[in-house]
Amino acid sequence: MAVKPLMLDEEKWRDIFASRQSERILTGILSAVEKHKLDDNQVDCGVVFYNGIKVLIPITEMGVREDWRVVRSMIGSEIDFIVKGIDVEEEIAVASRKAAQELRRKLELPKHKPGDRVMVRVVAVGRDRIRVDLYGVEVVVPKNEIEYGYVANPADHVQIGDRVPAVIRELELMTDPPRIKLSLKDAKPDPFIDVPKKYRIGGEYLAVVTGLPPYGVFVNLEQGVSALCPYPRWSNFDLEVGDRVLVKIKKINVGERKITGSLVRLVRKGVLDNGSLFVR
Asked: Which of 78, 129, 205, 218 is 20 to 30 Å from 102 by CA-CA measure?
């Protein structure tokens, strides 16, 4: 697209032109996926509305697998982009997220090392993992690194578009793309440190059911402290996530960060937020 004459004092277009002329990184919310005719071809594009201007990011410039479903899964996330073309009459700009990622990666990643605390942006949430953006690099974070304790559903803890703290576990810049491992839970206080002081083997404690996988029942004793219980032989077993139960602690393994218990009885039916409404 050719750049057409424009009064540069028009606030609406100032950032767009600055990005086009000096490769300034802009940030906006990915709001849609559309097909557009670009260079005589119909192309899937991510869409950002920036100051009322429609910014198209061709799927080849999104910096992800070239599948519109991947782009659709990112809708609602905050993304960076650099403008590459402008059509003032149509109030449309064409941009590249990939170029913004490469520039931010070059400028910011060399400043960091393993152990550093950083802020990341959540760009996709799946059943077993999430994807976050760290200075232009998309990093997969497995659900067991999102929060302490048992995590049944990552969406209970983070949402697309969230900015959250993380700790760099591994950072290798000599590979392409860079090899990075992140942990969100490492950026939070570790609740397991106080478990030996708070809980006793043989003690019975109020807990909340947080997961019902085939191999047992997970309960939260408190936020980030989970116990695994075998399924009881109750004739009227009808537990659901969010139910309050009484749990007897059978074993505490501090080294493996595991607590084993047994279900004593149902205390109350009802859904609680993430099974975490306990203060001990």
From this structure: 129
